Amino acid sequence: MKPAPFRYLRPETLEEALPALGDDETKVLAGGQSLLPALNMRLVRPATLLDLNRVRGLDVVSGENGALVVGATVRQADPRLLEHPLLREALPHVGHFVTRNRGTVCGSIAHADASAELPLCLVLLDGSVRVRSAGSEREIAARDFFVTHFTTALEPGELVVETVWPLPEKGWGHAFCELAQRHGDYALCMAAALARGDELRVAVGSVVDRPTVLEVDPDRPGESAAAQVEPWGNVHAPPEYLRQLVRILVDEAVGHARQRAAA
Amino acid sequence: MNEIRVTVNGRAYREVVEPRLLLTDFLRGRIGSTGTHVGCEHGVCGACTVRLDGVSVRGCLLLAVQADGSEIVTVEGLASPGEGTLTPLQEAFRRHHALQCGFCTPGILVAAEHFLELHPGPTKREIAEMLSGHLCRCTGYAPIVDAIHEVAHA
Fold first, then answer.
1. Number of CB atoms found within 10 A of residue B15's CB
2. Cys-Cys with A147: which of A122, A151, B62, B91 at CB 3.0–4.6 Å?
3. Can you tell me the distance from the alpha carbon of A129 to that of B139, in angstroms, rounded to the nearest whole number?
4. How far is residue A211's CA from residue A250's CA, in Å, rounded to a whole number?
5. Does pLDDT of B81 surpass 70?
6. What is the ipTM of this complex?
7. For chain A, which residues make up each domain, given as ranges?
């Protein structure tokens, strides 16, 4: 199918872009790798499309207080992202070679698909989202940003301008694991972990309505993670199968993270 | 309506388009460049992959108006049209029978050219991962992997 008609705006500065976001009939277009399918299938019919791709100053990756700060139009294929060890591990699972050339990191965060890899990583890292509107700006912790499937804490008129990706501190190991039916498809289940000695931080995605950090028993991480989730199940996998995936993938992620921490 | 200027396979075009016109429909319907195929129209099948300023992208996930000012290369732009010479990758596809119906082939050729520029000498596994973004229902992929691998390691 083809998109329904819309008004197309292509601002070149944030000052031009932000006032256009005032009404909720406007959709932001960055990489478009999720928005264009939805437009083509007419799942969304915005009155206005605000194309960020030519806004100056958004294609920026910078280091800041032990974190990588990623601007709104930075593509998932951008080699500057490889400086972050968890992103380096998770990005190959995000869509496909060609879609990563266009899809953006911040767009994936703003889209907030519960089965997307980047939101899970941002939550595991305790990262944050910097947003601006015509009158104000604020920084939202990732744990507060994702409300539920496709729903974020963004208010009308707010635009994600940067996401902040803390780098694991010295001595911490990291890992990202997922199972998808085909490489690059949305995962049935995914898990990510950070570990140092007895310290452990684990997050799971796809099997919950938003990326979620779980308090797990360090001696039996997979088992204790599986006991905390209630997967709905879907046409590809019943709830018990998904729970078993949580068990396996959490153990795998924790194992890798610990090995790296020890190395 | 918006006026756009693009270069497609070296030839300049100036056209007035509705913002909702997809790049694929611009290429096929407006300027008659039908080598770019349209399969799923939601970014899954990869048949519509073209180069936009050198970068491989899904033509169905880009508005023509977004390509304003850009240089586009489609499958028609890979070989030298006048001379009828195929690229090494196209030759390898023919040798390995890496296509049967040929519907997916334009997108795979365009993506594979870009992939090999960025990742010289990939393993068969890496090639298979790249191909996960392209649906082929004829070949079972093995001859496609072989063709790309052969060119990459020639």
1. 15
2. A151
3. 44
4. 14
5. no
6. 0.96
7. 7-51, 61-166, 173-262
**What total of structural domains would you count in chain B?**
2
CA distance B46 to B58: 7
Q: How far is A260 from chain B (nearest CA, A)?
A: 23
| B145 shares its domain with B97 | yes
Task: State mean pLDDT over B92-104.
Answer: 97
User: Residues B109, B110, B111, B114: is their CA dihedral positive or negative?
Assistant: positive
The beta-carbon contacts of A217-223 under 8 Å, at least 24 apart in sequence, are: A221/A193, A221/A250, A221/A251, A221/A254, A222/A246, A222/A247, A222/A248, A222/A249, A222/A250, A222/A251, A222/A254, A223/A247
A151: its two tokens: 């729903």
Amino acid at A80: R
Cα–Cα dist A228/A41, whole Å: 36
CA A35 and chain centroid, separation: 15
List average pLDDT for each run of 10 residues in chain A, which is 263 residues long.
95 96 90 98 96 98 97 98 98 97 98 97 98 96 97 96 97 97 91 96 97 97 97 92 98 98 91
Looking at residue B26, the DSSP 8-state letter turns out to be I
Place of tokens 């050219």: B113
Global model pTM greater than 0.90: yes
When CB atoms are compared, the residue of B18, B65, B111 closest to A98 is B111
User: Among the three residues B77, B99, B130, which one is the final residue of a domain in this structure?
Assistant: B77
What is the per-residue pLDDT for A185? 87
Window A:9-28, CB contacts with B under 8 Å = 10
| Domain covering A61-166 in this structure, CATH number | 3.30.465.10
Distance from CA of A103 to the nearest CA of B (A): 10
Tell me what pLDDT residue B82 has: 73
Please check whether residues B7 and B65 belong to one and the same domain: yes
Q: What is the domain range of residue B127?
A: 88-152
Nearest CA in chain B to A45: B20
- pLDDT the model gives residue B80: 78
